[in-house]
Structure formats: C-alpha cells, structure tokens
Amino acid sequence: MRITVLTGAGISAESGLATFRATDGLWESHRVEDVATPEGFAADPALVHRFYNMRRRDAAAAQPNAAHRALADLARRHDLTLVTQNVDDLHERAGSAHVIHMHGALTGALCAACGHRWPAPLVMSPGDPCPACARPATRPDIVWFGEMPYYMERIWDALESADLFAAIGTSGNVYPAAGFAQHARRRGVECVELNLEPSANARDFHRRITGPASRTVPDWIAALD
C-alpha cells in the first residue's frame, strides 16, 4: 500500500517539545513576526538565533516516542512517504529515512547571501561566516512565514499517488499543509486524521482518531495489517 503521512507539532509534543499554539507554547513568549519571518531576522538576527539555538538545544535533548518509532516500522512494511512540518530530527532518530522536512530543519544552516547549506552547529550567531562565500549571513535553514515550503512538487505527487493519507498531530491552520487532505480526497485517496482533538480542517478527512499520538499511531498502524 502507498501511504503518505503528514506529521505536525502534536507528534513531538509527547517528547517534550513545545508546540506553537498551546497556551504555554512558543508564541506565548515570542511574536511570530520577530522570530519566524525574514523581516524579523533582518531587524534582530541575534534574537532569532537565540530563539533557534534554544529550539535546537531542546530538540537535541528530546527523545523519539512510540509514534515516531511506529512510523519508522510502517516504512519497513509499506511504501511510505513521510512528510513533516516539524523541524526536529526525532523521526530520523527513531529510524525513519528520507523524511521530507517541508519547513526545514534545526540541524541545517543556510547562507542568506549565496544559498549554501551545511550542518548547523548547536549554537549559531549573526557573525558566523558562510563556509562557501565567507559572508556573515548565516541563518537557520528554516522556512519562515512568507517563504515557500520545501519539496512541494514531491509532496503533491505523493499525495496524488497514495492509497491512504494520514495527518498526525497537525493543527490544520497552516497552509499549504492544511490543504493536503482536501487535495488527496478529491483524487479518491482515503484520508484519516489522528489528533488530540479535531483540527481546523477536520471535515476534509473521511475518518478521525482522537487521542495522544503515542497511543493512537501504533494502534492505527497495527490495524493496517
């Protein structure tokens, strides 16, 4: 079976990583305009680097949970395309290969001047020179608001060729990911949502499974066989 899975912040929340929209989430202490836009980076790169250094540290300390591990096992038994909105590497550390990070990754650094990419150190600062052009234009390789997500052509192709699409731990508020279920459903793909509560686009799914990802994801995957 060809399966396309989209994961969001909810799958990593059980590993201790803060989500953005929870009452105690990341946006409670930081304005999105300040730390997750090109304009915010241009205005105060030191603040942006501190924010992502904190997230990189927290992600490095977190451990994959049962949901991450179950998806790695799913890939060994089915033709899986795993797409994530998350910028942590918990899927990879759980054993998943070829994860599509549509919003970039904390483990990557990007030169805003020449576009060169390289592995990010744990701590980054505005004065870090690009290894390729030596300009101090280093930024996290993260897709910020107002920027185009990565690998969209691959993702649309995977959605259209899938037999099953699942969204796990997503809010349904952020596009284009919020439109994936509608796009897949129009092409006859079965769509299922696994979430703590119905997402903003819950009506786009044929079926909804409610509960923590560490329980619902392994149970759902076991039932596929």
TrEMBL record:
This enzyme's EC code(s): 2.3.1.286
Annotated Zn(2+) binding sites: C111, C114, C130, C133
Keyword list, A-Z: Acyltransferase, Cytoplasm, Metal-binding, NAD, Transferase, Zinc
The keyword Cytoplasm is assigned to this record: yes
Entries under PROSITE patterns matching the protein: SIRTUIN
Entry keyword annotation includes Zinc: yes
UniProt remark on cofactor binding: Binds 1 zinc ion per subunit.
Catalytic residues as annotated in Swiss-Prot or TrEMBL: H103
Residues the entry annotates as binding substrate: Y52, R55
Catalytic activity field: N(6)-succinyl-L-lysyl-[protein] + NAD(+) + H2O = 2''-O-succinyl-ADP-D-ribose + nicotinamide + L-lysyl-[protein]; N(6)-acetyl-L-lysyl-[protein] + NAD(+) + H2O = 2''-O-acetyl-ADP-D-ribose + nicotinamide + L-lysyl-[protein]
Entry binding sites for NAD(+): 8-27, 85-88, 169-171, 195-197, 213
InterPro entries reported in the protein's UniProt record: DHS-like_NAD/FAD-binding_dom (IPR029035), NAD-dep_sirtuin_deacylases (IPR050134), Sirtuin (IPR003000), Sirtuin_cat_small_dom_sf (IPR026591), Sirtuin_class_III (IPR027546), Ssirtuin_cat_dom (IPR026590)
Names of required cofactors: Zn(2+)
GO molecular function: NAD-dependent protein lysine deacetylase activity
Subcellular location: Cytoplasm
Domain Deacetylase sirtuin-type: start-end pairs: 1-225
One of the Pfam families matching this protein, by short name: SIR2
Family: Belongs to the sirtuin family. Class III subfamily.
Role of this protein: NAD-dependent lysine deacetylase and desuccinylase that specifically removes acetyl and succinyl groups on target proteins. Modulates the activities of several proteins which are inactive in their acylated form.
Comment text on domains: 2 residues (Tyr-52 and Arg-55) present in a large hydrophobic pocket are probably involved in substrate specificity. They are important for desuccinylation activity, but dispensable for deacetylation activity.
Protein name: NAD-dependent protein deacylase
Organism: Paracoccus fontiphilus
Taxonomic path: Bacteria, Pseudomonadati, Pseudomonadota, Alphaproteobacteria, Rhodobacterales
